[in-house]
Structures are given as C-alpha cells and as structure tokens.
Amino acid sequence: MTSEQRVVGYGGLWARPEDDPRWSGKPVGELATIREYLTNYRRTLALKCEGLTPEQLAARSVPPSTMSLLGLVRHMAKVEHVWFRIALQGSDEARLFWSDDVRDVDFDGAVADPAVVAEAFAAWEEQIAAADAWLDQADDLGAVVTLSWNGDTASVRDILIHMIEEYARHCGHADLLRECIDGRTGQ
Questions:
Q1: Would the pTM count as exceeding 0.70?
Q2: CB within 10 Å: which end of the chain, N or C, has fewer?
C-alpha cells in the first residue's frame, strides 16, 4: 500500500479544520496558555479513541508492550488524579488504577469489556473536571507543594508543565495505536 492509498479522514486530516475541537484561540497569560495546551492534548486523546469498539480500544500495540488506547485513558485518569488530587490538593485517597503489588494495572486491566471502557472514560472525565475546577481557583504558579509519596517538592508550574509533557508523549503513542487499528493518522 502506498502513502497515496492510505489517505483517510479529510484530505489526510483527522477532522475538517472547522470541526477540530482544539485550538480555541489566543490565550493571554501563562496559566491560560498552559490550560489551552493541556485541554487540547486531552481533546486529542479523546479524538484518537472516538468511534472505536471496546475490542479496538483494548487492542495492544506490539508484544511485549501492554499499551492500548484504553490503557492510555486509564493511565491518564491515574496521572490526573495523582498530580491534581494527591499532589496539588493533598488528598490521601487511594490512587486510581494502581496497585503497590502489580506494575501497570492501568494498562493490564484495559480489557475489551464495555463496563471497563465506561469506567475508564468516566474516571478520566471525572478527574479532568476536578482538575479544571482546581485550576479555576489557581492563582500562584510558583507555589510549592511537597509530594506525599517521596517528600520532594514541586511548583504548581512544574506540575502543570509535566502534565502537558505526559499528554504529549502519550498522544504520540495514541497516534500510532490508532493508525494500527484503522489507518487513521495525525493532525
């Protein structure tokens, strides 16, 4: 198959430019800029998962990797929870999709079951809403928190930039996973 035969979507784009839910405008200020990047990466991951069956969402990349789109959604729900609820808000609640005894519960538990898919997306959306509510009140990006799991410190700014890095990395994975599923690429 040649690259000319692989064009999917809208002239090779994921969505028509006028229908792309990302890139809402020109943010003013540091926090607004950070929030727009974070929001757009969240939307990108959602787009990569859009329209897929539980089997497709749970499809693994290549052995021995356990990575799947569903695993990425579960992982990002965990990441949002750890950084926004536990680190920034000091919650002592149990981590999502986590076990002290088993590595990669977020990916290993990503199975082709509609209930698992529903739980993953609900948890991710709940964590995003909670993070956004916290960000609505954020006013000092230089504020420093102590991380409960290791005693290190980090500024709010560092954590937010880490969240962008985390999404950027995993949206790259999601691009490749989606291309393997149905050939859809990029944008």
A1: yes
A2: N
What is the token pair recorded at 171? 């949206």
**What pairs with residue 13 in β-bridges?**
10
Q: What residue spans of the chain are helical by DSSP H? A: 30-49, 54-57, 69-80, 105-108, 114-137, 156-182
- What six digits make up the tokens of 154? 């980090």
Long-range contacts made by residues 66-69, C-beta under 8 angstroms, separation at least 24? Answer: 66/104, 66/107, 66/108, 66/110, 67/107, 67/173, 67/177, 68/107, 68/110, 68/177, 69/174, 69/177, 69/178, 69/181
| Centroid of chain to Cα 40 | 10
Which residues are bridge partners to 146 per DSSP?
153
With both helix axes pointing from N to C terminus, report the angle between 30-49 and 156-182 in degrees, rounded to the nearest 10. Answer: 20
Domain 22-182 fold = Four Helix Bundle (Hemerythrin (Met), subunit A) (1.20.120)
Q: Walk along the chain (187 residues) in steps of 10 and give the mean pLDDT of each run.
A: 53 64 76 94 93 96 91 97 96 90 85 97 98 96 95 97 97 92 77
